[in-house]
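User: Quick sanity check before I run a bigger batch. Here is a single chain. Can you write out its predicted 3D structure?
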Amino acid sequence: MVCKKLFFAIFLFSFVIIHAQESGNSGQNSLFVENSEETDSDTEENFLELDTPAEEQWQLLEWIEEDSDFVQYYEVIIERCNEKTGEYLEVNKLKTEDNTPSVKIQPLLSPGSYRYKVITFDLIGLPSVESDWMKFSIYRAFKPEINDISSKVNGSATLYLEEINDGAFSISGKNLFDLQKKDTDISFSSYLLVNQNQKKQRKIYPSLLDVANKNRKIEVQFDMKDLDVGSYDFLAIDASGLKSEVSNDSKITVKFKKRVDFDVSAGYLCPIILFDNTINHYMGANIWPVSATARASFMPFKHNFGYLGIGVVGTYTRMFSDTSVYSIDGNLITAHLNFIYQLPVRFKIPNENKRKHALTLELHGGFGTTYFNNIAFHFAHNIDSEPLNSINLSFDVGIALQLYVTNRLYTELCTDFVMAFMSDMQFGVLHPSVSIGWQF
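Assistant: Done. Predicted structure follows.
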């Protein structure tokens, strides 16, 4: 009974010193040398900052024993790995004073790779069970610091998505080590960005390009596809788990120089009635060239995947026809509120680290009204029919291409499809247009 329970407990519980943490590379247990003095902290990990050398600190080994009533004491054997030969040599053998499943390590273990096993002695002082060897590492503990971050493109901690960015940053501080190269490394760091604007913080890991100036300066590079608009905290994490403090010196900002776009355009429209044939039957045409259109869009949500916003579009068409029996005329007016997605396309400006906004692809769609206004028949002897005025719910969906002549002036090619919901007819019309626009 005792053998089985101890065997299970040894593999269930990790080797700890105040705060223990699993190593992310090999599955070994990780042991950190930390202050024995109690300290309050608001961080989730509650890691302690080291102000005293390892020789003045203490280490504690604990394990779980479900039924220690049948145990008189434990014996712990600790061996250290020789980095050159890979062989393990015994460095300490410890014995508990009673059946408490923990032991204070004296003398302290220096940073390195170790393994240990626990031998249980029963009530008559005989060894009853021996665990398998369990590996662990003791890392050197250093508190990382971030003092300055600058983009290699513009020398600041702000990236503008209008610029050509390679995602490379120079970062200065203290205790900024290389990444872990092998399981036996006892001093290394890891680096990441955390977007504080998101409820679920997404972690973005960079490539480490260089470590210089006695671990006081590093160069990292992020994939620009991972960096959307927002404010990020750059964190350096020591092998011991100690983290750099979050401050203004460790922030990276990604944004557009122009935060919001407001576009206004007006131009020529040529409606083409696709169905039904009622208008063609009475007016003899499906194409109405005496028309105009105007659009306005507001784009407050700008991201690296595109822009999101809302807009309004209105059209006016003059409709008229003469026959031998009568003449007919009137107006067709549409107005819609649309949701808009825009994808800007930029090209590099020669000899400059900037990109020119060349064109924008747009998709939009929404709901509004289609208004048949004052459509009336006119007969001889000044006889007129009662004018038709009908406001009908309709939807609009379309695609547009904006070609920028300057940074603000653009020409726009657009095609929309409008369908009105009417009780006595089906009305669908295509709205091709060409316009001139200005971006404020």
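Confidence is low (pLDDT under 50) at residues 1-56.

User: Great, the batch can go ahead then.
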